[in-house]
């Protein structure tokens, strides 16, 4: 089980786990719950670059279509093909099996993101 207090978060409901200069990115359980049953995920191509705060993918559910924002700038080094094949993983396991992409980043860029307490305050404690 992922220690959610060790992650960083964005106001757009993405989480980041940093390992050296590689950031694993996904959406939070709060976002997955609000979206409803995820039925389609569109992710950026490996070796493409993403810019902080810019749309880099799409998550479609039975309720709506949501945009995936890059939490920090970086180069895409991996995408979770299992989620592309089975989008329900985003709902079932948002912090483990439902991760979306891995970015090579400047580790200092993550410092400005929200910690768990700030994210919970943003979402009303959920």
What key attributes describe this structure?
126 residues, OB fold (Dihydrolipoamide Acetyltransferase, E2P), globular, 6-stranded antiparallel beta sheet, single chain, alpha+beta
How is this structure best described in words?
The strands form two sheets. The protein has a six-stranded antiparallel beta sheet with strand order 1-2-3-9-8-5. It has a three-stranded antiparallel beta sheet with strand order 4-6-7. It is globular and about 35 Å long. It has one domain (4-107): OB fold (Dihydrolipoamide Acetyltransferase, E2P) (Beta Barrel), CATH 2.40.50. It has helices at 29-35, 81-85, 89-92, 116-122; strands at residues 8-9, 14-19, 22-27, 38-42, 49-50, 55-61, 65-69, 74-79, 101-104. The chain contains four helices and nine strands; from the N terminus they run βββαβββββααβα. 18% of the residues lie in helices and 34% in strands. The protein is an alpha+beta fold and 126 residues long. This is Glycine cleavage system H protein. The glycine cleavage system is composed of four proteins: P, T, L and H. It comes from Microbacterium invictum.
Which helices and strands, and how do they pair?
Layout: E1 8-9, E2 14-19, E3 22-27, H1 29-35, E4 38-42, E5 49-50, E6 55-61, E7 65-69, E8 74-79, H2 81-85, H3 89-92, E9 101-104, H4 116-122
Short description:
This protein is an alpha+beta fold.
- Helical coverage, percent range: 10-25%
Q: What is the CATH H-level superfamily? A: RNA polymerase II/Efflux pump adaptor protein, barrel-sandwich hybrid domain
Under CATH, the topology can be stated as OB fold (Dihydrolipoamide Acetyltransferase, E2P)
How large, in whole angstroms, is the Cα Rg?
13 Å
Q: What composes the largest sheet?
A: 6 strands, antiparallel
- The end-to-end span amounts to 18 Å
* Count of folded domains: 1
Mean pLDDT: 94
With strands numbered from the N-terminus, the spatial order across the biggest sheet is 1-2-3-9-8-5
Which strand-content bin applies to the residues?
25-35%
Uncertain parts: none
- Note the overall shape: globular
Order of secondary-structure elements: EEEHEEEEEHHEH
Which CATH class? Mainly Beta
Number of strands: 9
* CATH architecture assignment: Beta Barrel
Structural class: alpha+beta
* Count, helices: 4
